[in-house]
Design goal:
Blueprint lengths: L2 H12 L4 H19 L5 H10 L16
Organism: Shinella pollutisoli
Protein name: Chromosome partitioning protein, ParB family
């Protein structure tokens, strides 16, 4: 791996993440892992369940779930 790439990776590791970014990543991870095992799982299902979780309701994700 070249030095410029190493520097970019290190900077990305140290970059602060917002709660919204972490929530988007969490949902993507949940979808990817569950859909891999069961292709009937949809992003809509993951979002619906995540929205029911108490800590998810006050995050503005900027995602239009109807379009997914």
């Amino acid at each position: 791996m070249n030095e410029p790439l190493k520097a970019l990776i290190e900077a990305a590791r140290k970059a602060p993440r917002t709660k919204s970014e972490l929530e988007v990543q969490r949902r993507s991870f949940a979808y990817g892992n569950t859909h891999f095992e069961n292709d009937r799982i949809t992003r809509e299902m993951v979002n619906r369940i995540a929205d029911e979780m108490p800590f998810s309701e006050d995050l503005d994700l900027g995602v239009n779930r109807a379009d997914e």
